Amino acid sequence: MSSPDIAQLSEAQQTALQTYTAVTDQDPITAVPILQRSEWNVQIAISRFFDGEPASDPVAEARAAQSVPAPTSRQTSNLQYESLLAASSIPPPRRSSENVVQRIDTTATTVPAYRPPFLLTPFLTPFNLLFRLFSTVLSPLSFLVPSFLSRIFRNLFTLNSQPSRRQLPPADTARRFIREFEETYTPNPPLPFVESGFNLALDNCKKDSKFLLAVLLSPSHDETHTWVRETLMSSQLYQFLQTHQHELVLWGGSVQDAEGYQVSSSLNCTKFPFAALICQINDASGTGSSRAGDMAVVMRAVGPMPASELVAKLGTTITAQQAQLSAARAQRAEQQASRSLREEQDSAYERSLAQDRERARRKREEEEAQASAEKQAQEAAEQERRRQEQAGEWRLWRASQIPEEPETSTSNTVRLSVRLPDGNRLIRKFDGAASLEDLYAFVECHDLLSQKESVDLQVSRPADYKHDYRFRLVSPLPRNVIDLENGGTIAERVGRGGNLIVEELDGGEEEDDV
Which domain holds residue 427? Predict the structure, then answer.
């Protein structure tokens, strides 16, 4: 069936079409059939738009009773339709792209309120005041006025057509909606509304491949309270939500809130109460500008609807979309398993690499410690060798410095017998005024003194060398350690004569006290 040709309408029909589209904001191509079914009566068409099509057409029934053939509208070709669209600058409808649900912008601090131009405000203010006065006084008689007329007058005479409640963060807005909903309707049991913003609920449903049932309410709408009590709070819908609680998320909002109003604009909501079932689409073939993976509206429930019909539509739609969502969940589970496997493999590789690095570090430290120990041993050996060389040079020098043995005994002569560690004895006379260090030097260099030719060599004292005697002289009876540190002369420390014992000292041994 071709689209109706607006250019072939009469002047009265075009006037009726303009009035109807101005009130309902509906596409002219879609509005023509409704006006034709209403016999171009604007009031009947507007009533059918807002209240829904009647089950039986009274005009058709009257015609059938009078046997009057219904007039047929003239239809044009697609070329005329395209030229009409181009002339009227009305883009062709793209139902698939309109069904795609995008994230809403929640950065605005307030909801923009519509106000008429400044020049028209003085003229509309009296009508606004009169409308508020009559609506308050005559509110008990509102059932006598058709609902569409009350909405028309409210839109014409009310200055603010959009609610302007203080905007809260999305999560707080959701909690406020749930609290006001429970205070107003007291549902028992309570409905499982999610306490999050629309964007977060949409993202979570996309991530988990779940359905999102978005419910939008307008408290000022005439059918809202009835629909909530009879349909939304019905036991059938509650049982359905409980049955599908693992795959269905319920989100609710009010158009009085900024987020709810933006969601209604995003979902192209034109009539309340409104419910939309949203899920992820995977097959983008034949969907216009939509892409695979987008969240799209797959079912709309507009206007009053019995609970059984709503549950039937939800069940049919979920069943139809269940296969692709199950495939998406399986694919996501496979991807998650692959990701987990890769993470485990990467973790095992990192642990193995860390162990290899630790072994390499320990081996390097051991090699460095071994090299350091070898270097220290070499340095110690070199120092010992150098010390021995210097000690040999010092002994040659010190042997040449030892005074000759006195030939005759005098009152100041001391005769000593020194027993060496190997059992040999050294017997010699010393000048009593000689220092105790001469006695220690004699014991240290006694083997060189027997080699006269070595002692006669002119040997200089090694520079920066301090000889360390590795023995001590001890008087046995009574035991008395004649240590070199206290100094003194031989006569002062030993007396007129005596026997001394040479005791070798270890590196860590301390000398005994007297």
Answer: 402-504
Do the domain assignments include residue 108? Answer: no
> Which tens digit of pLDDT belongs to each residue from 204-213?
998 888 999 9
Residue 465 neighbours by CB under 8 Å, 6+ apart: 390, 391, 393, 394
Q: How far apart are the first and last CA of the chain?
A: 133
- Is residue 233 a contact partner of residue 186, using CB atoms and an 8 Å limit? no
CATH of the domain at 452: 3.10.20.90
> In the listed set 72, 93, 114, which residue is the last one of a domain according to the structure?
93
Query: Per the structure block, which two tokens stand in for 150?
Result: 């009350």
- 402-408: list long-range contacts, CB under 8 Å, 24+ apart: 402/438, 402/441, 402/442, 402/445, 402/449, 403/431, 403/434, 403/438, 405/429, 405/430, 406/430, 406/431
DSSP summary character for residue 487: -
Tokens 């000690």 correspond to 391
- If one counts the domains in the chain, the total is 2
pTM above 0.85, yes or no: no
Phi/psi for 375 (5° steps) reads: -65, -40
